[in-house]
């Protein structure tokens, strides 16, 4: 399981340039606060401590949608808000666009 590399030297950088938010440390996805383009290097901010992470978006990610912060295999649990929200339906790479094509809900 690979995890996006967190920026240690810039943990408390200005959040004005961020493109996504992560609710809790350990979450597998971030939520886009701006549209992201494929190939774009984007910064996310952890809401629980203000630290940052930088990833390259592998696809276009619309505002309000999710980006993968961790590499996962098919049928692995997905965490957001510190709780499991679903299961992967295929392998994920860091920076993948996460939506109904590659995640299913944990509710049913």
Automatic annotation (TrEMBL):
Q: Which GO terms describe its molecular function?
A: hydrolase activity
Keyword tags: Hydrolase
Spell out the CDD domains in the cross-references. SAF_AH_GD (cd11613)
Which superkingdom is the protein from? Bacteria
The reply to whether Hydrolase figures as a keyword in the UniProt entry is yes
Q: Does the keyword Hydrolase apply?
A: yes
The name this protein goes by in its record? UxaA family hydrolase
